[in-house]
Amino acid sequence: MSYVVQRIAFSILSLFILLFVTFLLSQVVAGDPALIAAGPNAGAAKIAELRQQMGLDQPIFVQFGIYVGNILQGNLGTSWFTQQPIARDLMRELPPSLELVFLAMLINLAVSMPMGLLTARFAHTKFDDAVRLVVLAGAGLPVFWIAIILQQVVAGNWGILPIAGRLSFSNRDFSGATGFYLLDSLMQGNLNVFIDTLAHLALPAFALSLLFTAVGVRITRTSMINEFRKDYVTLARAKGAGEGRVMFRHVFANGATPALTVFGMQFGWMLGATVLVEEIFGRPGIGRYAIKAVTQSDIHAVVAVVFVVGVVFLIANLIVDMLVYALSPRKQRAG
Amino acid sequence: MRTLWTYARTNVERTALILAAIVILLAIFGAWLAPFDPTQIDFRARLQAPSWEHLLGTDGSGRDVLSRLLHGAQITILSTLAVLSVVVVFGCAVGMFSAFVGGPIDNMLMRLADVWLGFPPLILALGFASALGASLEAAIWALIFSWWPNYARLTRMVTVDILSRKFIASADALGVPTHAKVTRYVIPNAFDVLIVQVTLDISAIMLAISGLSFIGVGAQIPMPEWGAMIADGRSYVANGWWIVLAPGLMIFLTAFSFNVIGDMLRRELDPTSRRRQP
């Protein structure tokens, strides 16, 4: 139990530091917010009044308190560019990005787990060396470059998958309750849209997953290889357990835990890496929103993206750590 | 240099060493080798396919792609080195301090490093770019800002390990002062682990810098930075594939080479990787 409390306390501490960093970021650039809010024709008295209203005459710690209060109420400020509440913008942009990241993560896990297990089992063989080489190459691929090439070759020249966007033109009227089109289309029983969404997701998700998969295979291999050395594996083999049983029932179940923690961190990093692919594939999403905000010098929108991605990262890690804890047979000792 | 070469066991590792050496040489001498001015615009010569005059063709503004690649090597290597040198020095200082002090301060610093590692560097760099204005310097600062905890944690781990060994107890008994312990025992012992990490990070930082330049918050066009070149070439990719292909291949080959070298160094230097001896 104490572990769970500690872990949650750590998340809250992290959230606080995240808030402080984003607060500082927005302070550094914003100029004089009262001057901007008052507009070009406002007199000195009006500006002074606004400054007082916005708490700008208060010490910086009080201002930080106001900032935290606003965010806890779901107020991330107003975008200078779209003139919309940023929180509403982000609620619209987050689902397509999360959908992309989920699929990329699925590809990552589907490749990393078995490859990591196999390379650990057959460590230092020709097979292991070959996979290592592929992994080292994958970890050197510029995501945005491979995305452009995939788009040109697979979608452009071969015409197998759609070039860009989230849905085909014929499905342009589709909308759903959650904003996750894969989920919405299934809930509405619309298989056509489901497949269309998946086809549009395939290339960007694959491109996004490459670098992370390369790291994932290595991490899984490292944590599995330690398991194969342990006494219980020798014991299981001595008892006559088949190699398949040793690998899946024993090694995989125990060795997956340290790797899981890394996959949890990868989730947040992937969300950050959407800035590299969404723009190329013309997909709406938080990455494209962030780039647009930077080019428009829309500082509050950029800071809000930093904050939201940070929060998703914290939540993903918390969930994974809780999962690892719940699955761990050793927790009785710890609690 | 000789030692590095003797570490190499496969042809891939030898090739990687040669490629890395070439890239470093290009970073030093590339600007002299370039046949054209990398920023000279010539609209009459735009989008020319690779030929004997322009070995890698010309880009959408008629600039020579090869000359841009050669100049770009310097930008890429120098900015990667800039990030790494600051990050290693600062991160190691924090890590050693943390290990020597111990107790609650150590605990707090490492928690801070844990939280810090959570920020996705690309997103953080976007924040920095909007604060400092998009430029190569802003991208470098952003990466420094987000990368140092890696080294703080690694150095702390290694230092704690070294401080727990017997020869440190003997040194304490002899009254060796702390600064001497750091320079005589900790740094030499931590060096092998650090050099492996640095080599592996070269490719990660290179990719991050080129990625930032690609999305427009790092080096700005017409600067011949490789990521910015890809961003610039994207609009012409249908009738000028070489503009995008060449810089991407350079990034890939450089990053791949350093990955292979890092992996090789880990096998040879890192005592924790128990690779069977030949």
TrEMBL record, chain A:
<keyword id="KW-0812">Transmembrane</keyword>
<comment type="similarity">
    <text>Belongs to the binding-protein-dependent transport system permease family.</text>
</comment>
<feature type="transmembrane region" description="Helical">
    <location>
        <begin position="130"/>
        <end position="150"/>
    </location>
</feature>
<feature type="transmembrane region" description="Helical">
    <location>
        <begin position="198"/>
        <end position="220"/>
    </location>
</feature>
<protein>
    <submittedName>
        <fullName>ABC transporter permease</fullName>
    </submittedName>
</protein>
<keyword id="KW-1003">Cell membrane</keyword>
<dbReference type="InterPro" id="IPR045621">
    <property type="entry name" value="BPD_transp_1_N"/>
</dbReference>
<dbReference type="Pfam" id="PF00528">
    <property type="entry name" value="BPD_transp_1"/>
</dbReference>
<dbReference type="GO" id="GO:0071916">
    <property type="term" value="F:dipeptide transmembrane transporter activity"/>
</dbReference>
<dbReference type="InterPro" id="IPR035906">
    <property type="entry name" value="MetI-like_sf"/>
</dbReference>
<keyword id="KW-0813">Transport</keyword>
<dbReference type="GO" id="GO:0005886">
    <property type="term" value="C:plasma membrane"/>
</dbReference>
<keyword id="KW-0472">Membrane</keyword>
<dbReference type="InterPro" id="IPR000515">
    <property type="entry name" value="MetI-like"/>
</dbReference>
<feature type="transmembrane region" description="Helical">
    <location>
        <begin position="299"/>
        <end position="327"/>
    </location>
</feature>
<dbReference type="Pfam" id="PF19300">
    <property type="entry name" value="BPD_transp_1_N"/>
</dbReference>
<feature type="transmembrane region" description="Helical">
    <location>
        <begin position="251"/>
        <end position="271"/>
    </location>
</feature>
<keyword id="KW-1133">Transmembrane helix</keyword>
<feature type="transmembrane region" description="Helical">
    <location>
        <begin position="100"/>
        <end position="118"/>
    </location>
</feature>
<feature type="domain" description="ABC transmembrane type-1">
    <location>
        <begin position="94"/>
        <end position="324"/>
    </location>
</feature>
TrEMBL record, chain B:
<feature type="transmembrane region" description="Helical">
    <location>
        <begin position="122"/>
        <end position="148"/>
    </location>
</feature>
<keyword id="KW-0571">Peptide transport</keyword>
<dbReference type="GO" id="GO:0015031">
    <property type="term" value="P:protein transport"/>
</dbReference>
<keyword id="KW-1133">Transmembrane helix</keyword>
<keyword id="KW-0472">Membrane</keyword>
<feature type="domain" description="ABC transmembrane type-1">
    <location>
        <begin position="77"/>
        <end position="262"/>
    </location>
</feature>
<dbReference type="GO" id="GO:0015833">
    <property type="term" value="P:peptide transport"/>
</dbReference>
<dbReference type="Pfam" id="PF12911">
    <property type="entry name" value="OppC_N"/>
</dbReference>
<dbReference type="InterPro" id="IPR035906">
    <property type="entry name" value="MetI-like_sf"/>
</dbReference>
<dbReference type="InterPro" id="IPR025966">
    <property type="entry name" value="OppC_N"/>
</dbReference>
<feature type="transmembrane region" description="Helical">
    <location>
        <begin position="241"/>
        <end position="265"/>
    </location>
</feature>
<feature type="transmembrane region" description="Helical">
    <location>
        <begin position="15"/>
        <end position="36"/>
    </location>
</feature>
<keyword id="KW-0813">Transport</keyword>
<keyword id="KW-0653">Protein transport</keyword>
<feature type="transmembrane region" description="Helical">
    <location>
        <begin position="77"/>
        <end position="102"/>
    </location>
</feature>
<protein>
    <submittedName>
        <fullName>ABC transporter permease</fullName>
    </submittedName>
</protein>
<dbReference type="InterPro" id="IPR000515">
    <property type="entry name" value="MetI-like"/>
</dbReference>
<dbReference type="GO" id="GO:0055085">
    <property type="term" value="P:transmembrane transport"/>
</dbReference>
<keyword id="KW-1003">Cell membrane</keyword>
<dbReference type="Pfam" id="PF00528">
    <property type="entry name" value="BPD_transp_1"/>
</dbReference>
<dbReference type="GO" id="GO:0005886">
    <property type="term" value="C:plasma membrane"/>
</dbReference>
<comment type="similarity">
    <text>Belongs to the binding-protein-dependent transport system permease family.</text>
</comment>
